[in-house]
UniProtKB/TrEMBL annotation:
InterPro entries: ATP-grasp, ATP_grasp_subdomain_1, PreATP-grasp_dom_sf, PRibGlycinamid_synth_ATP-grasp, PRibGlycinamide_synth, PRibGlycinamide_synth_C-dom, PRibGlycinamide_synth_C_sf, PRibGlycinamide_synth_N. Its EC number is 6.3.4.13. It is an enzyme of class 6 (ligase). One of its GO terms (molecular function) is metal ion binding. This is phosphoribosylamine--glycine ligase. Pathway: Purine metabolism; IMP biosynthesis via de novo pathway; N(1)-(5-phospho-D-ribosyl)glycinamide from 5-phospho-alpha-D-ribose 1-diphosphate: step 2/2. It comes from the Eukaryota. Belongs to the GARS family. Residues 111-318 form the ATP-grasp domain. PANTHER family: PHOSPHORIBOSYLAMINE--GLYCINE LIGASE, PHOSPHORIBOSYLAMINE--GLYCINE LIGASE, CHLOROPLASTIC. It comes from Gopherus agassizii. Pfam families: GARS_A (PF01071), GARS_C (PF02843), GARS_N (PF02844).
Length: 453
């Protein structure tokens, strides 16, 4: 019997989740709350106005409308215990409990957890007292420091200090002046890690860990990693410059110990876990956690999943992930390019009409994020408006197709990058040169048929 599924959220991630779930023959309908213009009356997918912040009302809505599965997108709701409340009410929900989600929502907890279990991360410590924090700063040999407010993770609550004096001022502002409010009741002070940043995601049922292909996201606003930091301006997957041996090491020394450590502490982690990693000259180390699919990581990785997403989710909830392991295309590369509003990541322009020829060809998909419908027109409503994802046999072809899709879509003041995947492209070009025309990269095998869209 086919299920009705509710996806909670309104961004590009939620559009991608709904799109992938709708491909399953086990799914009759996907509701998205509140959704966006891309999830409004789109085949099996439609929007819902149910109040998701009230978990009692939400649980009753799910029962009244025969919702067999809820998939939570935003991290803020995970921290409020939405999974705990829905499961207690008899509604199946995919995601970690509030206690497990502390890996993301409480940086002090995450820091203590990593240190306790010997999982590689930056050197540092958490403090609630500004004087103790400054004493620690002056005693360190860190060339540069990162000051993180410990509460609900946000980019604005991370300060990179170039000097110890600057770091002490940041600590005073957070702990004493309360510039971040309750999120800054404690701070985590760490050494600034340098290297190549990666995203490693996995499904886990609390015991089994099923890694996804590595993703590299581009956070700076402009080409060449210039401009302000953002939530993500694009991504590509897989990451060819990371060897297979390192992928296995990440699973064995980072992902599995995290899941095992949480279970040992009495908090089974069930859902998707995304780790932000830094590949330093010495080792791969964790720099942050995301307790769900990231954005744009979700839009670039889910198109490469070749088996039934709904079945993988159900097996994960039931503790049977080992019997339904996710399978990924080995012969395709995905590239996602984000189109953002003028002014993003600061104050941005809204209500700009989105026009153009949305790509319909095989291998290109447009995921809506900050869009709404006004008078039967699609208009901008958020900082990041759309994500254009292309799937091809090699990285250069995927980037070319994604950029073609971006050019075909128009709204006033649109901002986007043209160089997504430049690190991998440089690596591939070097590999081809070294091997005299024979690429050794995993992203460039002989193509095999893969129907994605």
């Amino acid at each position: 019997m086919a299920d009705r599924v509710l996806v909670i959220g309104s961004g590009g991630r939620e559009h991608a989740l709904a799109w992938k779930l709708a491909q399953s023959p086990h799914v009759k309908q996907v509701l998205v709350a509140p959704g966006n213009a891309g999830t409004a009356n789109n085949g099996k997918i439609s929007n819902s106005a149910v109040l998701v912040s009230n978990h009692t009302i939400l649980a009753q809505f799910c029962k009244d409308h025969n919702i067999g599965l809820v998939v939570v997108g935003p991290e803020a709701l995970l921290g409020t215990g939405i999974v705990d409340d829905l499961m207690s009410a008899g509604v199946r929900c995919f995601g970690p409990s509030a206690k497990a989600a502390q890996l993301e929502t409480n940086r002090s907890f995450a820091k203590a957890f990593l240190d306790c279990h010997g999982i590689p991360t930056a050197r540092g410590k958490a403090f609630a007292d500004p004087q103790e924090a400054c004493s620690f700063i002056t005693s360190t040999d860190f060339p540069a420091l990162v000051i993180k407010a410990s509460g609900q993770a946000a980019r604005k609550e991370i300060i990179i200090a170039a000097s110890k004096e600057e770091a002490c001022r940041a600590v005073q502002e957070i702990l004493q002046d309360k510039v971040f409010g309750k999120t800054g009741e404690t701070v985590v002070i760490e050494e600034l890690l340098e290297g190549e940043e990666l995203s490693c995601l996995c499904f886990t049922d609390g015991v089994t860990v099923a890694p996804m292909p590595l993703v590299q996201a581009h956070k700076q606003l402009m080409d060449g990693d210039q401009g302000p930091n953002t939530a993500g301006m694009g991504a590509y997957c897989p990451v060819p410059q990371i060897p297979e041996a390192l992928l296995e090491k990440i699973k064995d020394s980072i992902l599995q110990p995290i899941v095992d450590g949480m279970r040992q502490e009495g908090t089974t982690y069930v859902g998707v876990l995304q780790t932000g990693l830094m590949r330093t000259k010495d080792d791969v180390k964790i720099i942050n956690f995301t307790c769900h699919f990231g954005d744009p990581q979700c839009q670039v990785i889910l198109p490469l999943l070749t088996n039934d997403f709904y079945e993988v989710i159900q097996a994960t909830i039931d503790g049977k992930l080992c019997s339904c392991m996710p399978a990924w295309s080995e012969n395709h590369t995905a590239v996602s390019v984000v189109m953002a509003s003028e002014g993003y990541p600061g104050e941005y322009v809204k209500d700009m009409e989105v026009t153009g020829n949305f790509p319909r060809e095989l291998g290109v998909k447009v995921f809506h994020a900050g869009t709404t419908m006004q008078d039967d027109k699609v208009v901008t409503g958020g900082g990041r408006v759309l994500t254009v994802t292309a799937i091809k046999e090699d990285l250069m072809s995927a980037l070319e197709e994604a950029n073609k899709g971006v050019v075909a879509i128009r709204f006033q003041g649109a901002i986007y990058r043209k160089d997504i995947g430049y690190q991998a492209i440089a690596f591939l070009q070097q590999s081809v040169y070294v091997s005299k025309g024979t690429s050794r990269n995993r992203c460039l095998p002989s193509p095999q048929p893969l129907i994605l869209f």
